Amino acid sequence: MTLYCYMLLEGQKVSLGVHPDSVLTQDYSLPDGTAVHVIVGEEEQDKLFALQGILDEEE
Fold first, then answer.
1. Kind plus residue range of the DSSP H or E element containing 38
2. Domain ranges of the chain
3. What count of Cα atoms within 13 Å lies in the side-chain half-sphere of residue 15?
4. Which residues, in sequence order, are CB contacts of 11 under 8 Å at separation 6+?
5. Which residues pair with 14 in a beta bridge?
6. What is the CA radius of gyration of the chain?
7. Is 24 strand, coil or helix?
């Protein structure tokens, strides 16, 4: 499974298998060159975790 880097609302950086096109994000590049998908809103963050839960069940 490909992992994507997300920045959560609290500023925590996590790697998840949910494709960034599945949730509303803003693309951002960190100073070290890492591409991060910044979550846009609490509803989208909840959706991200729900989708990751589905992926985890399928494994």
1. strand 35-39
2. 4-58
3. 5
4. none
5. 6
6. 11
7. coil
